[in-house]
Amino acid sequence: MRPLLPPRSSLGCLLTLFGSLSPSRNKLVTQAAPAAHFYLLRKSMHYQTEERGRLNSADYRIYFKNSEGKYISPFHDIPLVAETKVENDIPAKKAKHDGNEVLYNMVVEVPRWSNAKMEIATKEPLNPIKQDVKKGKVRYVANIFPHKGYIWNYGALPQTWEDPTHTDGETKCCGDNDPIDVCDIGSQVCLPGQVIQVKVLGILAMVDEGEMDWKVIAINVKDPDSAKLNNIDDVRKSRPGHLEATVDWFRKYKVPDGKPENQFGFNGQFKDKDFAVEIIKSTHEHWRALVQKQTNSEGIECKNISCCESPLKCTADEARDVVLLVRAYKSYTEELVKYCLNSYPVIILIINTSDTLALMCEICIVLYD
């Protein structure tokens, strides 16, 4: 039975290309089978994650849901400041404290000791977590001797944004167009997409290829050492060498890829908790302007279901449709591959969905006489 054909207009450019090939020539065909769809649900505090695609592939995504099972953006819909939990496990609109300490939500992108470069997809609707891709290949960080992968749980603070139009007064560099990064120095190895509450301890001013790239140092509030670590000096005293290793890692981790060492503001010295909190507040205000469209979005997708003052707020049904659309594109590409394999002496090697969800086909035709 002939497979369901893709829409005629979408296939036209491929048919035009194929039509110029002579059927009498011998062709060498290499096939890459499309990955099967699957999803895996995982709960984390008030949030669930839903994995789609094949792990360690360009189509792998981690989508987020709230406690009601509605799809959300981890970038825009998870609050920056952690909220207290009431009896029915629904977040209350009140900041959570650890003593007198305000706690922040951290979205874990990369587990400690792992190498896959996972990140919030800021330019995709609903901002799922994906593995970074460069030149068609998924990216991994190299092991920086004597460490294995990332040396902390690495992620981002939601509802923050390092504005690329804002110039930092100390480094004279502009933001890197991403949520602010955070390193959880706790002992627990977290999972990608896990949302944890952290206590901020300090911050490092890294300059990455001329862009400001702040690194917040924090600890999971559930860590056994959380009670005795309250500022950056406590880390220096109780964990000798940890901060130095952090600077060394960030300085060198791109060198194996042929890039220069990263630089730092403040001579590579960590700033204290109060300074860190002010930077976080600043990036939160930049995010607020972003999601309210008061500033240039720089390509950032701001679709959300909870930001009342945002013109890009959508309904839960519209958010669900975003995820369904991704699945539809994947099904479409699979049918396209099947059709082409059955009808034409060529093979599509890579089929992806671009950041704008437009269908992208990279076609490789290997011919020999």
Automatic annotation (TrEMBL):
Its cofactor is Mg(2+). GO terms for cellular component: cytoplasm. The keyword Magnesium applies. SUPFAM superfamilies: Inorganic pyrophosphatase. Signal peptide: none annotated. Keywords: Acetylation, Hydrolase, Magnesium, Metal-binding. Pfam families: Pyrophosphatase. Homodimer. Belongs to the PPase family. This is inorganic diphosphatase. It comes from Cynoglossus semilaevis.
